[in-house]
Design goal:
The chain is of the alpha+beta class. The chain is built from 4 helices and 2 strands. It has a two-stranded antiparallel sheet with strand order 1-2.
């Protein structure tokens, strides 16, 4: 699936029009929001569970939960910093052309 906006921009610049480079303003990838929501719900559940534990008596469990929470936060941050290989693409990409005529020519070429 598509996960790199820069690579997609280059591909569309070179391939959208036959024999000529297209001017691409922006490419936006549609990300799987369900995966993000699942991670956030898991974080909330872990946080709630952590609050109910006796931290002295259950140190191993507390350590395990904190480790899992840190892993989820790390994954969310890495995705936010452009390391998009950590998220799934929906397969949908929005390509914004500088000129409408180029967009129409691209649509005609691939339809």
């Amino acid at each position: 699936t598509a996960t790199d906006e820069a690579a997609l921009t280059q591909w569309f610049q070179k391939n959208a029009l036959k024999g000529v480079d297209a001017e691409i303003v922006k490419v936006v990838i549609g990300w799987d929001a369900q995966e993000y929501r699942d991670n956030m719900l898991r974080l909330k559940d872990l946080h709630t569970r952590l609050q109910t534990l006796d931290h002295k008596a259950e140190q191993d469990v507390v350590k395990s939960i904190k480790g899992e929470m840190e892993g989820i936060v790390r994954e969310l941050k890495s995705a936010a910093m452009g390391q998009s290989e950590h998220l799934r693409s929906t397969g949908t990409v929005v390509v914004v052309f500088r000129h409408q005529r180029e967009m129409r020519a691209c649509l005609n070429r691939f339809n």
